[in-house]
Amino acid sequence: MKAEKSSPKYMELANWVMEQIREQKLRPGQKLYSEHELQQMFGVSRQTVRKAFAVLEKDGVIHSVRGSGTYVNEDRQTKLAQRMRVSVVTTYVDGYIFPRMIKGIENALIDQGYTLQIAFTNNQSMREQSILEDIINRDEVAGIIIETTKSALPNPNIHLYREILKRKIPILFVNSFYPELPIPHVSLNDYMVGYRLTQYLIKMGHRKIAGIFKLDDLQGRIRYSGYMDAMHDAGLELDERNILWFDTEDVRCFDNLSERLLARVKGCSAMFCYNDRGAYDTLNLLTRAGIRVPEDLSIVGVDDANLATLGEVGITTIPHPMEMLGKKAAENLLQLIRNPLFDANYEFDGEIIERESVRRWK
Q1: What does the pLDDT look like over 247-280, one tens digit per residue?
Q2: Rounded Cα–Cα distance for residues 336 and 343 (Å)
Q3: Residue pLDDT, tens place only, 143-165
Q4: Can you tell me the distance from the alpha carbon of 188 to that of 172, in angstroms, rounded to the nearest whole number?
Q5: What is the third-level CATH fold of 190-319?
Q6: What's the pTM value of the predicted model, to 2 decimals?
Q7: Under CATH, what is the fold of the domain 78-188+322-348?
């Protein structure tokens, strides 16, 4: 979980102004305290006050009138708070993560009197585009919770996200994020997942560890970074011939990867799988090829999906927080609606669940 950090003085001042507005001690159209008055009240420099004003102006909270002073804006946040619908967009409606994640979002929002407007991109950029355009054109929602689409690839819809930011509509990413956008995200700590599971395999005596990672989602690349650093920190060679990359289309026909996968695990005693879906399919491919898990090859996955315990060999994994992640995303979005300066980023840690798919290597 993210570490707590003290805010700089100018952010403390900016947050104080926001609190005064929320408590209606400062109202839309009302003149704000002068720079000199705020210096005296908080014991800070003029530069600190001006930095706080710059943050508040950038977020559309205040505006300055030359020769007159600084005023609280006719408040868009009030209008947003009066709207009681949140747009929730995920890649898929099915699968083992999304129903429970949406349930967590729904429960948290309904408790606060909000309703949900749900849409699915099917991990396709064109579908993402039409959904975002509809949200922008209608301009009826209090906020947006959205899962990224093929987040590891250049996205043609970045300009639509920038328009949402320009319009001051609170927005938060779940599961992943687009690195080029200043939009907060709530997700699993994917680097930690890659590092911790690889380190676990190393502690179990494995030295040649293959990996299968998703190419078009940022989670795959970040988990690969964790895997790579764990290998490096242990002084082990990372052989690219042992790495298999797959994309969204490959998931629908995983059997087509069988020859490539078998080539990647040659000479290895263990394998890191991007998620439990991949680990389950990999286990079946290995079994058909006469490779025993864990006697010949140990495997680990991510998510703690039902698939992890469905077969004869239970899969060692780190759980995805699913419903808890959805709940946290909803709570943080509500905080953003109330306070645009709120830091809504949050990453979940997870502990390894040991099952039969890993054995100690001699």
Answers
A1: 888 777 777 788 889 999 999 999 999 999 999 9
A2: 8
A3: 999 999 999 999 999 999 999 99
A4: 14
A5: Rossmann fold (3.40.50)
A6: 0.78
A7: Rossmann fold (3.40.50)
